[in-house]
Automatic annotation (TrEMBL):
It holds the Pfam family Ppx-GppA. Residues 1-21 are annotated as: Disordered. It comes from Hwanghaeella grinnelliae. Residues 42-339 form the Ppx/GppA phosphatase N-terminal domain. Gene3D superfamilies: 3.30.420.40, Exopolyphosphatase. Domain 2. Signal peptide: none annotated. The lineage of its organism: Bacteria, Pseudomonadati, Pseudomonadota, Alphaproteobacteria, Rhodospirillales. InterPro entries: ATPase_NBD, GppA/Ppx_hydrolase, Ppx_GppA_N. This is Ppx/GppA family phosphatase. It comes from the Bacteria. GO terms for molecular function: pyrophosphatase activity.
Amino acid sequence: MNTGTLGRPGPQENKTPDPKIRAKPRCFAAIDIGTSSCRMLIARAKGEGFQVIDSFAKNVRLGSGVSVTGMLSDAAMDRAVAALGVCMNKIRDQNAVHFRAVATEACRKARNIDQFLVRVQRELGLDIEVIGTDEEARLAIAGCLPLLNGQQPHGLVFDIGGGSTQLAWLGCRDGHAEVIGTHSIPNGVVSLTDRYGSRLADPALYETCVEEMSQKVRDFCHSHRIADYVGRGEVQMIGTSGTVTTLAGIEMGLERYIRSQVDGASLSFERIGTLTEFLRRLELPQLAAQPCIGEDRAELMLAGCAILEAICTCWPVGRLKVADRGLREGILLDLMRRHEGDQNGARRQ
């Protein structure tokens, strides 16, 4: 965890911060280096939550090819380091002295991960923490909790990432959620695209991919008898992933992606099926031309749709809540609670 490390000298860091920057209100930052994207949030504490004051996201495809070669490529590391440089500049500009940077599936798998971590520390003065699947799930769940309703006693939260898909089964009661079980499937949109590429446009191969993912979801489903609760209408579902948010943006007819309109929206399984069928009929340039997809995400969409279809088939809840939030928000809440606890402890002494 990086907490108060802005004083560490680095090529892009002033050893003596501008006094005007030091005078800014205290804020916190979270960086998520995923298999596909590098994303950051900077926020100030506000009530029980926080107010975002800056953000950054860049599709860097750090994990491209890792599922095949087991290595991070030089080009992918270059892209990630450049994006992290932007993040660090923003963190310094906002004087975010409490921050944490985490990496997930691609970095867990890569045999040359130390090379990447050492380079980032040397060039940017940033320590990246490669977290395990349990911690990844915990943080993602914490970020999504505000979207849970009080009507159903159970919840399913899923995150379709670049290198893995995280599943969580929750008990919901009195405004609180208890994690009953989590499961990490080592397949995400980047790893499936690395394996199948444009061949996912073939209907037979697409169905094979859906069935493969369905079996992995069913293994988790059976261990907790989730289908029984779904059948009784006792389950709510939250989906946090680029696939889900993109489909929601298309459903809304947005000319450009607007997070404030998508986050917290509702999407029916019927519409998910219709949108998926529509996207599967498009060629790659047509996918890229969709306002909420673009060139960066176009070749990943069908893999994401296949994973989402597997989830919807195994758990026919009928409707899900769209979450453009998750791991970064969970990190921010952790940092703010820890800082508040430290302050309370200091006052008692």
